[in-house]
Each structure stands twice: as C-alpha cells, then as structure tokens.
C-alpha cells in the first residue's frame, strides 16, 4: 500500500492512527500491571520531624523549588557532581515532591551536612557574601520571623490522611517503633509535636540564636536533613538498578 493512498483516505488514516496510538499506549501501560512495587526497598527513609516539616513549608512558601531541584538524574555527570541519583523512596513522604523543573542554582537533593549550620544561615541571609557570583536573593527575614508552629499537629494529621505514617493511636505508635525505632517513633507521634519541635530546635544552634525559634531554624534543619537518610555505602553498586 502506497503512503499516498493512506494520506488521501481520511477514514483509513484515522483508523491506522488510532491503531498505532493504541499499540503504543498498551506497550507503556501493560508493564505497569506487572510491577509489584515502584518504591525501592531501602532502610533509613522516614517522615519529617515537626521542625523539618515546618522548614519544608517555608522552603515551599519562599519558592525555593523554582530555582533548585531535588532530583539527581541517573547520569554520570550528575552523580559526579551531586552524588547517587535520587530514589523514589526518598520522596515517598513528600506532598508534593520537590523535584523541580529547572536549575538556576544547584540541586539540593544531597545538600544535608555538606555545609555547616552557620554557612547555611549566612548563605540564606546574604548569598553573595559566600558565593560572589550567586544571583540568589537574600532571605534575611527568616532570622527575624518567629516560627509559627501553632498548627503543627493539624499539619501532621493532614499528611497522615494522605499516607504519611504519623501516629495518633497506640497501635500506630507501636508500628512506627517497629519500622523507625523508638526514638523516631516519639518524634512522629502527633501528640508530641510541639514538645519535639521545641526540643529539636534547642538541640542544635541552627540559626546562631539559641534564645528564639525562628523560621531560619526550621529551614536550616530541613536543608541539613536532605539526602542524609539513606546510607548508600551499605548497598553494592548497581543494587538499585533492579527497581528502575
């Protein structure tokens, strides 16, 4: 059959177009029904603590995702610069995830522990004082604003409704003890949220001012957690390829 005969016959063209689209769609959709799990089996990934959760809220509020991604792609140049490529498991408790759509600044998926708390604070207040060529704006008000965590329990309950395993009952608490350990289960219990947040804020001098809990405390705590949950040294090279 000549290609011209297909082009001049609109009915045949429609039928063949639908057939090609259907075949292509089936090739993409059918394998999904045979995948038992799309999230990698990995130890260490947990929900955010109350202070980290408020820090993430501020990260979203300030639009940090518009210039920074949190998704290292599985390419050699990406891994040489940022570290192991991002796992789906690392974003399983994000609502919404912070993968981003562009990089005006570097990827932040593994920024946790890369710099000190003092560096992070100064960088957020005056980026050019540390990186002269940076075009990032400063966020000095984060040091000035007291952190509002009056609704932290409600925020945790809202996330619990979409699948984040914060606990409210004894049964849920016991399940978290088994999955995350007793210490972390305490931090993930909704009833402990205010006490846990204040304790974590005071445990480290996140923003350089131990006398107040500021928005800077929360944001730095969140940034210092990013990429630190999974110990990739425990896994052989290529271990996660089976999940791709």
Automatic annotation (TrEMBL):
Keywords: Heme, Iron, Membrane, Metal-binding, Oxidoreductase, Transmembrane, Transmembrane helix. One of its GO terms (molecular function) is oxidoreductase activity. The keyword Transmembrane applies. Residues 50-163 form the Cytochrome c domain. Its EC number is 1.9.3.1. It is an enzyme of class 1 (oxidoreductase). Pfam families: FixO (PF02433). The chain crosses the membrane at residues 12-33. InterPro entries: Cyt_c-like_dom, Cyt_c-like_dom_sf, Cyt_c_oxidase_monohaem-su/FixO. This is Cytochrome-c oxidase, cbb3-type subunit II.
């Amino acid at each position: 059959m000549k290609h011209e005969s297909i082009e001049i016959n609109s009915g045949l063209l429609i039928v063949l177009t639908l057939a090609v689209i259907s075949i292509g769609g089936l090739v993409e959709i059918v394998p999904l029904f045979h995948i038992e799990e799309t999230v990698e089996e990995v130890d260490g990934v947990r929900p955010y603590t109350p202070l980290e959760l408020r820090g993430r809220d501020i990260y979203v509020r300030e639009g940090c995702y518009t210039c920074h991604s949190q998704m290292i792609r599985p390419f050699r140049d990406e891994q040489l610069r940022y570290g192991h490529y991002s796992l789906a498991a690392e974003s399983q408790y994000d609502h919404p995830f912070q993968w981003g759509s562009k990089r005006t600044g570097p990827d932040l998926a593994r920024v946790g522990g890369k710099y000190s708390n003092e560096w992070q604070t100064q960088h957020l207040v005056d980026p050019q004082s540390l990186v002269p060529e940076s075009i990032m704006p400063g966020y000095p008000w984060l040091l000035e604003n007291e952190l509002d965590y009056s609704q932290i329990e409600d925020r945790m309950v809202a996330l619990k409704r979409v699948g984040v395993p914060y606990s409210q009952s004894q049964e849920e608490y016991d399940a978290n003890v088994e999955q995350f350990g007793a210490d972390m289960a305490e931090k993930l219990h909704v009833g402990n949220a205010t006490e846990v947040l204040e304790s974590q804020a005071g445990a480290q001098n996140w923003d350089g001012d131990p006398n107040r809990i500021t928005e800077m405390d929360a944001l730095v705590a969140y940034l210092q957690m990013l990429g630190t949950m999974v110990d990739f040294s425990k896994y052989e090279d290529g271990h996660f390829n089976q999940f791709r």
